[in-house]
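Field: COMPLEX_INPUT
Field: COMPONENT_COUNT = two
Field: RESIDUE_TOTAL = 223
Field: MODE = joint
Values follow.
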Amino acid sequence: KNQVEQSPQSLIILEGKNCTLQCNYTVSPFSNLRWYKQDTGRGPVSLTIMTFSENTKSNGRYTATLDADTKQSSLHITASQLSDSASYICVVTGLSFGAGTTVTVRA
Amino acid sequence: DAEITQSPRHKITETGRQVTLACHQTWNHNNMFWYRQDLGHGLRLIHYSYGVHDTNKGEVSDGYSVSRSNTEDLPLTLESAASSQTSVYFCASSDRTSGSAYNEQFFGPGTRLTVL
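Field: COMPLEX_OUTPUT
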C-alpha cells in the first residue's frame, strides 16, 4: 500500500527560529513530491515540487530536499515568521497525501 | 482571474438526507478531485475525474457519487448522509499532463459539512 508518513505531527517554534519537517514515503512508482502549505480554514497551496532527479528546491525561506534512494524528503523553514503558522502537507506522485505537520510560530 | 469555488461553505443536514456540494473552476482544467479532511487523517481522496464523463473512485468513495457533465463543474453527492460524513470537503483541479494527477492541484476554500 502506498503510504506517506510525516513527522512530527505538530511543533511549536519561536519566531525567527528554523525548523525541519520530515516526509517518508513508500509510494511506487515515484513521479514527483510536492509540499503544500495549508493555512487554517483554507485550501492547500503548493510550495515546491521535486522530481526524481532533483534533490533540493527552494521557495523563499522554504527549502525542500529529496533523497529518492531512501524515499525521504524534508522541508526546512528558515527564520520563521508568524505567517508560517500552518499545516504542511507532503504529496507523492499527485494523489498520495501525508497527514501533515502543524507548525505554530510564537512571538 | 481564474479560480475554483465551492458552495455552500457551511452546511448542516440531517442523517438520511441527500446533500450535494458544488465545485466550479474557471481554470479550464481537465482534472478535478474531491477530498475530505478530518483531524488525524489529512486529506483523503473521495472521487476524481480526468475529463468530461470520466469519474473514478478514490480511497473513501463509499456513500459518495460524482458526475462530470462539463469541464467546469464536479458536484459531489451524498446519497444518504451519515454522521460519519461530517467533515471538511475540498475540491481541487489540475491541468492535464499525460492524463495524470501529477500537476499542481489548485484547491477550493472548502465546505464544512455537519450531519446531525
